[in-house]
């Protein structure tokens, strides 16, 4: 596939939206207005270079593309994000959840920062939650709050004769009550902008990186071997410490044009 720097990924995002049956709540509207007032295009631009990859993984599994919006809410699509509770990475895994989904944590590499590994883990987790709760809204809420918390609130509702869908779980903490509406607000903004041909950041509709195998090499060794930018190599491989010796998969730009895009020169 050739480079399509002017092709928009957003139509592909919208085409995969599948969460349509929900109330238009005041929380969704408030989240929309906040996002628009704070420069939504600047936020969306932060998803380069990872959105195309995440969307491809979501769609390959036949999942709603709304799931590709979760990293905007979790981390602004920043692989090195660390929360005040020490959740890490683009998908914000906490330390006790990460090993359940095969994310390894070591001094050399914390795979919560690895976009490829953490995306697979997050989609595994979300799919499991969907199977357990039978509903994407509840699954997304449980991703934020933890499944036990959601189950406890559901039991409380049952005991009081109240429905147990997400929209009736008023005893959830405020962060979780706002979490699902934020994702739906972002979905609505993107959908409206695409349908009305309004300006959105141009994210190339191709993966910008490829995987190669490193053999007992540092990031500096790899950068010299492949004659690519040290900053780009580090940004594509945020899991690895600078002095780590790597044996395994490493990400590199697919070509010189991709390197320029990743470096912000195109």
Description:
The protein has helices at 10-15, 26-37, 40-45, 51-60, 70-75, 115-133, 136-145, 147-159, 174-195, 219-226, 230-236, 256-262, and strands at residues 209-217, 246-253. The protein has 266 residues and is mostly helical. It has 2 domains: 10-195, Lysozyme (Orthogonal Bundle); 209-262, Roll (Membrane-bound Lytic Murein Transglycosylase D, Chain A). Helix 2 (26-37) packs across helix 9. The protein starts with 9 loop residues before the first helix and ends with a helix.
Name the features.
single chain, 266 residues, mainly alpha, Lysozyme, Membrane-bound Lytic Murein Transglycosylase D, Chain A, 2 domains, two-stranded antiparallel sheet, 12 helices, 2 strands, globular
Distinct helical segment count: 12
What Rg, in angstroms, do the CA atoms define?
19 Å
Number of strands: 2
Helix/strand-derived class? Answer: mainly alpha
Beta fraction:
5-15%
Bulk shape: globular
What's the average pLDDT? Answer: 93
The CATH topology assignment of the largest domain is Lysozyme
Output the strand order for the largest sheet. 1-2
Count the domains. Answer: 2
CATH class of the largest domain: Mainly Alpha
Major β-sheet profile: 2 strands, antiparallel
Q: Uncertain segments of ≥5 residues (pLDDT<50)?
A: none
CATH architecture field of the largest domain: Orthogonal Bundle
**CA-CA gap between termini:** 19 Å
- Helix content percent band: 40-55%
SSE order: HHHHHHHHHEHHEH
């Amino acid at each position: 596939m050739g480079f399509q720097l002017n092709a928009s990924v957003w139509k592909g995002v919208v085409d995969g939206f599948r969460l349509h049956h929900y109330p238009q709540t005041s929380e969704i509207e408030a989240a929309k207005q906040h996002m628009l007032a704070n420069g939504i295009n600047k936020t969306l631009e932060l998803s380069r270079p990872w959105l195309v990859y995440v969307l491809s993984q979501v769609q390959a599994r036949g999942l709603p593309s709304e799931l590709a919006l979760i990293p905007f809410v979790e981390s602004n699509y920043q692989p090195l994000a660390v929360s005040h509770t020490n959740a890490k990475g683009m998908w914000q895994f906490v330390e006790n959840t990460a090993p359940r989904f095969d994310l390894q944590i070591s001094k050399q590499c914390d795979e919560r920062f690895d976009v490829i590994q953490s995306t697979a883990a997050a989609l595994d987790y979300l799919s499991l939650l969907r199977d357990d709760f039978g509903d994407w809204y509840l699954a997304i809420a449980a991703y934020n709050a933890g499944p036990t918390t959601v189950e406890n609130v559901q039991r409380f509702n049952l005991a009081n004769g109240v429905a147990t869908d997400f929209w009736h779980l008023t005893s959830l903490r405020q962060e979780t009550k706002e979490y699902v509406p934020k994702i739906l607000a972002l979905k609505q903004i993107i959908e409206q902008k695409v349908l009305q041909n309004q300006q959105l950041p141009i994210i190339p509709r191709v993966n910008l990186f490829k995987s190669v195998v490193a053999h007992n090499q540092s990031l500096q060794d790899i950068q010299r071997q492949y004659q690519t930018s040290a900053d780009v190599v580090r940004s594509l491989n945020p899991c690895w410490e600078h002095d780590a010796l790597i044996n395994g998969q490493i990400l590199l730009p697919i070509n010189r044009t991709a390197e320029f895009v990743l470096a912000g020169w195109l």
